[in-house]
Amino acid sequence: MRAVVLREFGGPEALKLEEVPDPSPEAGEVIVEVHAVTVNRSLDLKVREAGATRGVTLPHVLGVDPAGVVVATGDDVDAVEMGDRVAVVPHIRCGTCEFCTTGREEQCPNSRHIGVHRWGGYAQYVSAPAKNIVQVPDRLGFADAAVILRHAPTAFNLLRNLAEVRSGEWVLVMGAAGGLGALGVQVAKLLGATVIAGAGTDARVESALANGADHGVNYRANDLTEEAERITNGRGVNVVFENISDPALWPKAFASLGHSGRLVTAGAHGGGKVELDARRLYGRRLRIIGGAGASKRDIASALEAASQGKIHAVIDRIMPLHAAADAHRLFEEDALLGKVVLDPTATRGNA
Ligand SMILES: NC(=O)c1ccc[n+]([C@@H]2O[C@H](COP(=O)([O-])OP(=O)(O)OC[C@H]3O[C@@H](n4cnc5c(N)ncnc54)[C@H](OP(=O)(O)O)[C@@H]3O)[C@@H](O)[C@H]2O)c1
Ligand SMILES: [Zn+2]
């Protein structure tokens, strides 16, 4: 099969299209013909640059969320059949820790990732455990399914389970035109919130408004706290969907919370070390909640909402597999308004 193989960590040029042997299905596993796989900052670009720090062994094939058609099944596979339209959920849980054995798999501290700790979907075919397979609803295309599964379950976990967003509340979504942010805006709307979209350029603010946000703030050009106060008539927001951890932005977002507010986060592209106003934390009865991951219920909610047209994938472009290096360069240039998806079945241009 054709696969984009990483033989040394480095820049986008390290991504090379090669012919490698087709995978064959082990017991309990399936082979999926890949029709779509997304490009991501942490799980693709950072792994390409410095995957050794995440336990990646070379040669490696990136791609954490492939979607496509099942073309082979190994022994002991019952729930998945040849020809099924499916997507691969990347987390391989340990199955033995205190969380896995008590129905809280999403909190497993020993999770391994398809596309990080074993070969992923930057290829014509990918193998995956059958229990990592979810069926893609007929109404959902493969690119849409890959993007929805990449971000929407996390958005449901953060906003519904952890922040417990209620109808009528104010939600400030940071990085609102990013991969997770774009779904955060939509899931917050679905939960009945009024959404303020924060982003770092006017074009990204506009993109978030086009995807359903009620208000927008360019937080690089304006004082975010003042703007949030103005928009909420002095009340402050109920929830901040943060996920950036930028030293300048985080305190401004935190200070946008009104009484009993909650800040939820699963990301730290902006650096990760931030200053906390502890007096404000206890005085206003605020909560800060961290929580990567998503449960089976979050995955089901995401697919159901997408198949009903209540949320949608925001895709900048679909590119063929051989353009993987160009896709990474585009991502690094910050020129995108939506996800880049690779389609290994496409041979040229925008598929
Ligand atoms: N499944 C998931 O979605 C998931 C799960 C667990 C963790 N996460 C984490 O959530 C975070 C967001 O992921 P994503 O896929 O949405 O990333 P993304 O598409 O790159 O979007 C991140 C957004 O953050 C803003 N940002 C501000 N400062 C930044 C900086 N220094 N570097 C990069 N972005 C910056 C950017 O918007 P502006 O320029 O407009 O500010 C950008 O649009 C990441 O840390 C990721 O690891 C995501
Ligand atoms: Zn576990």
The shape is globular
Total DSSP helices = 9
What do the pLDDT scores average to? 96
The CATH C-level name of the largest domain is Alpha Beta
In this structure, how is the largest beta sheet organized?
7 strands, mixed
Q: What would you call the structural class?
A: alpha/beta
Give unreliable regions as ranges: none
- In N-to-C order, the SSE pattern is EEEHEEEEEEHEHEHEHEHEHEHEHE
CATH superfamily assignment of the largest domain? Medium-chain alcohol dehydrogenases, catalytic domain
- In whole angstroms, how far apart are the ends? 20 Å
> How does CATH name the architecture of the largest domain?
Alpha-Beta Complex
Structure, explained:
The protein is of the alpha/beta class and 351 residues long. The protein folds into two domains: 2-136 and 314-347, Medium-chain alcohol dehydrogenases, catalytic domain (Quinone Oxidoreductase, Chain A, domain 1, Alpha-Beta Complex); 152-290, Alpha-Beta Complex (Quinone Oxidoreductase, Chain A, domain 1). The protein is built from nine helices and 17 strands. The protein has helices at residues 41-50, 142-162, 179-190, 202-210, 224-231, 249-254, 278-283, 296-307, 324-332; strands at residues 2-6, 15-19, 29-38, 67-73, 85-88, 91-92, 112-113, 125-129, 133-135, 170-173, 194-199, 215-218, 237-241, 257-265, 287-290, 315-320, 339-343. Strands 3, 4, 5, 8, 9, 16 and 17 form a seven-stranded mixed beta sheet that branches. Helix 9 links the parallel strand 16 (315-320) and strand 17 (339-343). Helix 2 (142-162) packs across helix 3 and helix 2 packs across helix 8 (296-307). The chain is globular, with a radius of gyration of 20 Å. The mean pLDDT is 96. NADP nicotinamide-adenine-dinucleotide phosphate binds at residues 40-42, 150-151, 154, 175, 177-181, 199-201, 204, 243-244, 246, 266-270, 292.
